[in-house]
Design brief:
The complex is a heterodimer of chains A (about 110) and B (about 110). Chain A has about 110 residues and is mainly beta. Chain A contains no helices and eleven strands. The model of chain A has no long low-confidence stretch (mean pLDDT about 95). In chain B, strand 7 and strand 8 form a beta hairpin. The mean pLDDT of chain B is about 90. Classes of the chains: A mainly beta (about 110), B mainly beta (about 110). At the A-B interface, strand 5, strand 9 and strand 10 of A face strand 5 and strand 10 of B.
Chain lengths: ~110, ~110
Amino acid sequence: KAGVTQTPRYLIKTRGQQVTLSCSPISGHRSVSWYQQTPGQGLQFLFEYFSETQRNKGNFPGRFSGRQFSNSRSEMNVSTLELGDSALYLCASSLSDPTWNEQFFGPGTRLTVL
Amino acid sequence: SQQGEEDPQALSIQEGENATMNCSYKTSINNLQWYRQNSGRGLVHLILIRSNEREKHSGRLRVTLDTSKKSSSLLITASRAADTASYFCATYPGGSARQLTFGSGTQLTVLP
């Protein structure tokens, strides 16, 4: 089985721009979660999608949004980028409920905002 | 804010030694999970322990959970250089906030 894939792996943007990151979960997994990892704040939950619906949301501003398609692939979008958005963005998939089931993580997208 | 805090923040040991990492959390939980992350890469799930369990084993890993002290420990026996990674605990408090909260992590270095 192929693992979780994320594209692109690296991204450089400037302040004020917007960015879209993509995540393809493991085949058959319907839940996709997104996390932001920074040296200062650690791993923080952004949101989780299940069957095309946002099921849970972390404490991030509205500039961070996401969606999930019918094939379970997910995208997250960050608008009006700020320097503090520089981070490793991780996506994880699981069969159903990520709070009770193993999550499989992708390699991440390293976003640098200049 | 982070629910779990790992201790120590960094640990350096010789190959063959045992490594113990601790995680403390603030609120009651339904389960606690341990993950490993190799430098700048995705996380790998190691083990999940439910709140009604006290100990769980998986290969060279042993996890204990003490809900009265709100703490968990991860023991890696007979460590190998390949165990060098960051280790995170993640808690699920239950209730409507159905999300995992990760701790700050322990950086383990195993010297050959």
